[in-house]
């Protein structure tokens, strides 16, 4: 474990350190399997109480498959790795009161003693800081549609370029520009592998029309790639894209028409800095707005699919973490 980490105590660790839960610290110390989990998905991606139920179920899936879950969030200015059930509950109830925290927001949230829900970029940062190589989420951010005009490219992609953590996700949502997202990941030197398929999945659907450069068919194969990355000190991240389970895959058409409608509502005019329908959806508010509108416009069915795929990703993530731990013993 990194020397900058310390165990949580009643007074709390000094500013700029990270509180690692005793269970996570013990697992890391013995080289056991640990899976990092993000908190933006809990606070900004799903409504209460479904968010709490999902967070607990995801942690349970990780445990059932032999790994220790480490949900990451900033509580009263202190980055936490591994939350107690009380902390998880208060996070889920607080929801949007927790600031969406990407890499750029970390210093401010910590310095002001605030509460932060970490996105993929911030979660990767803290996972790596304490020595967790595996991180499971639903979907990562990417290059937004019209990104060539707005330059709205998620810091998740640059983080993947410079932080050696493996992220297991269901690909990226088609609210984003998937071909450009893959181009950007290539530029950043990120290993992109799809699980048991040659196609990069689009979150709600198994297909995106984009092929991946690398296919993996088992947790052991993933673990070998992670080891090679580590042994060569590549320093970059790995994205394992897992297609949504068939029984939950939504009709691509229904999702696409909801996305088109939501995109119109949020439409960003780079010159006026305002949405054309005056919703003023800009910057980091775009992703949560789009996720919420697509959920409403699909009558909530997208939420059930979302929950199912996160649990499916957690199952694979735990197996990869166990395979990696075995390989390194
Ligand atoms: N995509 C999803 N669900 C999510 C997110 C993305 O399908 O919850 C969240 C993740 O936390 C991700 C963040 O890291 O949104 C990306 O936000 P932005 O596009 O503002 O970088
Ligand atoms: Mn953005």
From TrEMBL:
It comes from Leersia perrieri. Keywords: Glycosidase, Hydrolase, Lyase, Manganese, Metal-binding. GO terms for molecular function: metal ion binding; pseudouridylate synthase activity; RNA glycosylase activity. It holds the Pfam family Indigoidine_A. This is Pseudouridine-5'-phosphate glycosidase. GO terms for cellular component: peroxisome. SUPFAM superfamilies: Indigoidine synthase A-like.
């Amino acid at each position: 474990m990194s020397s900058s980490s310390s165990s949580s105590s009643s007074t709390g660790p000094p500013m700029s350190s990270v509180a690692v839960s005793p269970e996570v610290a013990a697992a890391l110390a013995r080289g056991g399997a640990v899976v990092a989990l993000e908190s933006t998905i809990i606070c900004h991606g799903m409504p209460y109480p479904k968010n709490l139920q999902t967070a607990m179920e995801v942690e349970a899936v990780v445990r059932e498959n032999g790994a220790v879950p480490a949900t990451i969030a900033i509580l009263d200015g202190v980055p936490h790795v591994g939350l107690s059930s009380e902390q998880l509950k208060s996070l889920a109830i607080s929801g949007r009161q927790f600031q969406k925290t990407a890499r750029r927001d970390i210093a401010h949230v910590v310095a002001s003693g605030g509460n932060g829900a970490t996105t993929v970029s911030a979660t990767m940062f803290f996972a790596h800081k304490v020595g967790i190589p595996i991180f499971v989420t639903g979907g990562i951010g990417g290059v937004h549609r019209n990104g060539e005009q707005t330059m709205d490219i998620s810091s998740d992609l640059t983080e993947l370029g410079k932080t050696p953590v493996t992220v297991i996700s269901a690909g990226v949502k088609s609210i984003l520009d998937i071909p450009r997202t893959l181009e950007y990941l290539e530029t950043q030197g990120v290993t992109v592998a799809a699980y048991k398929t040659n196609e990069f999945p689009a979150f709600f659907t198994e297909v995106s029309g984009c092929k991946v450069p690398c296919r993996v068919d088992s947790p052991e194969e993933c673990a070998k790639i992670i080891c090679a990355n580590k042994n060569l000190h590549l320093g970059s991240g790995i994205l394992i894209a897992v297609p949504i389970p068939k029984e939950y895959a939504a009709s691509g058409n229904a999702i696409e028409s909801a996305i088109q409608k939501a995109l119109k509502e949020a439409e960003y005019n780079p010159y006026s800095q305002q949405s054309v329908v005056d919703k003023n959806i800009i910057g980091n508010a775009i992703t949560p707005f789009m996720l919420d509108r697509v959920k409403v416009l699909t009558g909530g069915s997208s939420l059930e699919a979302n929950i199912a795929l996160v649990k499916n990703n957690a199952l694979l993530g735990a197996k990869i973490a166990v395979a990696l731990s075995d390989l390194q013993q």
